[in-house]
From TrEMBL:
Residues annotated to bind GTP 2: 195-202, 252-256, 317-320
Statement: the UniProt record of this protein carries the keyword GTP-binding: yes
Protein name, as recorded: GTPase Der
Presence of keyword Iron: no
Keywords: GTP-binding, Nucleotide-binding, Repeat, Ribosome biogenesis
Organism: Erythrobacter insulae
PANTHER family: GTPASE DER
Gene Ontology BP term (one): ribosome biogenesis
Domain EngA-type G, first and last residues per copy: 3-167, 189-379
Span of the signal peptide: none
A Pfam family it matches: KH_dom-like
Gene Ontology molecular function: GTP binding
Chain's gene name: der
Length: 484
């Protein structure tokens, strides 16, 4: 494994800005107000060929452990376990504060090697703060500006003696593994958990991991960043010739409220980050709250996932208390949600639906097993012969209509891609093909070719008209982008 370097410090000293600088992307949310980061976020960092895993952490605050800031601090403390080094970030323009000195005392009591980073050191305004940082007793500080990229070479010089040897060994091992994996099947399942605030997304992931990896609590909207965690799940029902170990990249996301209710800049950034996480995922689990049922916002989130072409599953969380709410029985609640999903998402009927409990682990293995199965469907390519047999049978069973007495001809079909499955149908007069007939074809693809509830894209293409004065050169077909 790559060496792991933790970024630690009090709120608003620029930890997330440094994280983004090292990974080369704006992965972590950054804002002027303190306390934006709440969970640990990992990323692949590189400085002049030195590769390591960098971990952004919540700002260290001196609060009771039962409060939200106190629980955030416990997450930061936990991140130091197993770390190869830590970057203690201070604000050189402000100078040392009592909280900086408290963090310094805590770090001196740990065995993790520390590099003091004096951030915001551009110009001369940070000189006094840099000098003050020597009093921490943690070695020479590294002056830099995370925002402007100044001083990163000096950071390399400070980190190399600590993690260089391990980084070289990890790089050599990765190159060897790449050679072995050239013909390997699908990689780790990229599985995102989405839903409204307080549905239990972070609690669910903690249950799967078997540790309090993500910050949780009764407060709605604790998660702000989308957090990706690599994990191995062992399928208890694997066959005798299968060790059952499955690689998964779990992605926790911020809760998505109704757009009109999202007014704060930070929440808007969090929701945008969650939407990008959906784009990154292969399979998305929409987590519902059994105590709230299915709401219109859940359907909007589901529609967004399907529009992005991701494979979608629905899980009803807090099933352990489902029988204690309202007058509905658990089975009645389940069937009611099933019916509402089929009505509200008529374009994809029969989405996988599971009753789970993040509290006691009910149904989680079944849900994960289904996630791998639906990814297989989402990634499947249909043999040409089987595809054309189905197409001919579908046309024979229900020929296209002939509006105005002129027949619509559907000539053949081909699969253009996977993930999600995309098909192109060639024919003539396709502008007159009713939407109902398109739905007939898409439903047939799902039912007969094994795509079940996977989102399917169908594009209709007609031959170019040789008498069209505006036609372009090259190619025999143009046209349509009717997405279903």
């Amino acid at each position: 494994m790559k060496p792991q370097v933790i970024i630690i410090g009090r709120p608003n000293v620029g930890k997330s800005t440094l994280f983004n600088r090292l990974v080369g992307k704006k992965l972590a949310l950054v804002d002027d107000q303190p306390g934006v980061t709440r969970d640990r976020r990992m990323g692949d960092a590189e400085i002049a060929g030195l590769q390591f895993t960098v971990v952004d952490t919540a700002g260290w605050e001196d609060e009771d452990e039962l409060t939200l800031p106190g629980r955030m601090r416990k997450q930061t403390e936990a991140s130091l376990e197993g770390a190869d080094a830590a970057m203690f970030v201070i604000d050189s323009r402000v100078g040392l504060t009592p909280l900086d000195e408290e963090i310094g005392r805590y770090l001196r009591e740990n065995d993790v090697p520390i590099v003091v980073v004096a951030n915001k050191a551009e110009g001369s305004a940070g000189e006094s703060g840099i000098l003050e940082s020597y009093s921490l007793g943690l070695g020479d500080p590294v002056p830099l500006s995370a925002e402007h990229g100044e001083g990163i070479a000096d950071l390399f010089s400070a980190l190399w003696p600590i993690i260089g040897e391990k980084a070289d060994a990890a790089e050599a091992a990765a190159e060897l593994q790449d050679e072995l994996d050239e013909d390997a099947p699908l990689g780790p399942l990229k599985l995102a958990i989405v839903g409204r605030p307080n549905a239990g997304k972070s609690t669910l992931i903690n249950r799967l991991l078997g540790e309090d990896r993500l910050l949780t609590g009764p407060e709605a909207g604790i998660t702000r960043d989308s957090i990706a965690i690599d994990w191995q799940w062992t399928d208890p029902k694997a066959g005798p010739d299968d060790d059952g170990v499955r690689e998964i990249r779990l992605i926790d996301t911020a809760g998505m409220r109704k757009k009109r209710n999202v007014t704060e800049k930070l929440e808007k950034l969090s929701v945008a980050d969650a939407r990008r996480a959906v784009d990154f995922a292969e399979v998305v689990i929409l987590l519902l709250d059994a105590t709230q049922g299915l709401e219109h916002q859940d359907l909007k989130i589901a529609s967004h996932v399907l529009e992005e072409g991701r494979a979608l599953m629905i899980a009803i969380n807090k099933w352990d208390v489902a029988g204690q709410i309202g007058t509905d029985t658990p089975s009645g609640l389940f069937n009611g949600i099933r019916g509402a999903l089929d009505d509200g998402l008529a374009q994809v009927r029969g989405l996988p639906l599971f009753a789970v409990s993040a509290k006691n682990g009910k149904g989680l293995d079944t849900m994960l097993r289904a996630a791998f199965e639906i990814r297989e469907s989402w990634s499947k390519r249909v043999p040409t012969a089987a595809l054309n047999r189905w197409f001919d049978d579908a046309l024979d069973a229900n020929p296209p209509p002939a509006p105005g007495g002129r027949r619509i001809k559907l000539r053949y079909i081909t699969q253009a891609g996977t993930r999600p499955p995309r098909f192109v149908i060639f024919g003539t007069r396709l502008d007159d093909l009713p939407k109902s007939y398109e739905r007939y074809l898409v439903n047939g693809i799902r039912a007969k070719l094994g795509f079940d509830a996977v989102p399917v894209r169908v594009t209709l293409k007609s031959p170019k008209n040789p008498y069209n004065a505006n036609r372009g050169g090259g190619g025999n077909f143009s046209g349509g982008s009717n997405r279903t």
